[in-house]
Amino acid sequence: MTLSLSLSLSLSLCVCVCVCVCVWQVLLVFAKDDAQSNSFCWACERAGFRCNVARTPEAALESFQEKNHDLIIMDHRHSRYFDAEALCRYVYSTCVCVSVVTQRYVENSNMMSCYNELIQLHHGEIRAQIKLRACNAVFTALEQSQEAIEISSEDQIIQVHTHTHTHTHTHTKHKDRRKGSLDVRSTTSRGSDAGSSQRRHSSMARIHSMTIEAPITKVINIINAAQESSPMPVAEALDRVLEILRTTELYSPQLGTKEEDPHTNDLVGGLMTDGLRRLSGNEYILATKQLHHIPGHLTTPLSLNDIPPCIAQTMENEDSWDFDIFNLESATMKRPLTYLGLKIFSRFGVCEFLSCPEATLRSWLQIIEANYHSSNSYHNSTHAADVLHATAYFLCKERVKQSLDPIDEVAALIAATVHDVDHPGRTNSFLCNAGSELAILYNDTAVLESHHAALAFQITTRDDKCNIFKNMERNEYRTLRQAVIDMVLATEMTKHFEHVNKFVNSINKPLAALEENGSFVCVCAGKCILTAPENRILVKRMLIKCADISNPCRPLELCIEWAGRISEEYFAQTDEEKQQGLPVVMPVFDRNTCSIPKSQISFIDYFITDMFDAWDAFADLPNLMQHLDNNFKYWKSLDEKKLHSLRPPPE
Ligand SMILES: *[C@@H]1O[C@H](CO)[C@@H](O)[C@H](O)[C@H]1NC(C)=O
Ligand SMILES: *[C@@H]1O[C@H](CO)[C@@H](O)[C@H](O)[C@H]1NC(C)=O
Ligand SMILES: *[C@@H]1O[C@H](CO)[C@@H](O)[C@H](O)[C@H]1NC(C)=O
Q1: 3-state DSSP call for residue 83?
Q2: Where is the composition biased (Polar residues) (predicted)?
Q3: How far apart are the CA of 517 and the centre of ligand 3, in A?
Q4: 202 close to ligand 2 (CB < 6 Angstrom)
């Protein structure tokens, strides 16, 4: 169970990309063979790149001068062998290529991760970026040079042969690639006179019209263009920006710098990965585990009008945040979702919106609830009812109402109801490790969330009796279905930081900027931010995510009960993993050793605090924040007394 969390930053390798756009030759500069160099060799072979190994800087330079490699990977971990940075500088100064980029790669000798790194370098944004710089450099050369210029392809076939004044294009064979390629580095780096800036500008314009690429590449292009006309400090700052943009995990925090807390580690590992990524190659274990089957029959439908008074009474304050869902769970004999659903859906006029008879809604709620597993200690229908409750509560907040349309509200209530249907009480990582049918069906990607969404629609549309969508107009159904699916998939924790960060950047920050101005003109602008379709999607995702993991914001007693249930479910998973010889995904959740207070503290620190700060800034939730603070202090106090249990022992 190693996540890059524990890797020290000082163990880094220096990757120097020196690129013409050709078949890749890779030079490894490693004083000694070790797991890391072996993995890179293997990765090169697998990727079909040619690979040389050099043991000393001298050998490296000699080899480089001969082969003119496209990628040099230098071992930067042991300064006693050689000075990688000096070697880097030397390569820069002698490089006959059009552009040089350096990157760092943190030590990781997992073969697949080396392979992925190479492939990413080869195909990723970096290559586009390099191409772009190359093009720019070539245009500069074209306009400055009095000489003929030839640009050769990867097979050393000349693509363009041009005289500055004649601009003739011919295609001939060329034997020596190095002679054919040109050193324009020196001309570009010196070209800072006024004319050159204007010229480069037109070069950039040409490059823009040449490339059809991903949005991120467009962004990089724009920044590149801005750099051209910026003073040095700005250009350098933009270099930093580009460096960050080139990483693929744009919305993930840099795990490498997080504290090394095993609870956080396990939660991140258990909730945010698919289990496969954390194992190398062959450790992936194929086993067959039968998932629970859909229960065959339903109990006879009850009538909404004769909800027993004792149940009606427990639901009286369902619009309050402090509503006690566990009372309802016992009063309804474990059918809280059906009853709470009837009440909340009718409060929001869902049947009217869907043009569906109440009897259909009733049957639908019953069959959905029946497909939650009562045997799960956490992910049973009480959790679904709880998330439905939180969703309904959030939907009544002023800002949320301003942002969402009726169809969004209906989608949110439906999504909350079905969001964990048929949950097996095991995490995605477990299902992937166990080679479960679901993991295979969904290619180890968002396995559970995909299943919840797909099954919900299957159950609903299979039988007219419970098909709440059957009277909907086709286009409206498509819109609603899309919104429900999007929200259910948003509950997947691998995307946690992506959703939260997008919300903060697209909604919190612009709204805060408007509020600072405090002008009347802004009311309209604020409305626009709130109701833009792309922002409504972000609001809905954030809403269901917060509802899904709002346990730490509930009143203390409820919070403690939930903590007990989730811990028990994780313990059961660890038990089963041990029993079946599967990798233990979250070792801290071992019933013999686990500190529940510590696990709650880590969960709150890592996932909850920032998210609810953002959600509170948007929706204004003082009571939730008060509970959160209170609960956090409770867990801290238990932890300070070195207690591992849910509650202090009786006096
Ligand atoms: C959910 O699990 C708990 C055990 O943690 C159990 O007491 C409760 O009855 C279950 N609820 C439902 C609706 O199955
Ligand atoms: C899983 O991967 C296969 C092969 O790439 C693909 O054909 C299939 O559509 C994928 N299934 C899902 C559910 O993504
Ligand atoms: C705030 O007000 C200033 C001056 O009135 C204006 O230039 C600026 O665009 C406003 N900011 C936003 C975010 O609207």
Answers
A1: coil
A2: 184-197
A3: 6
A4: no
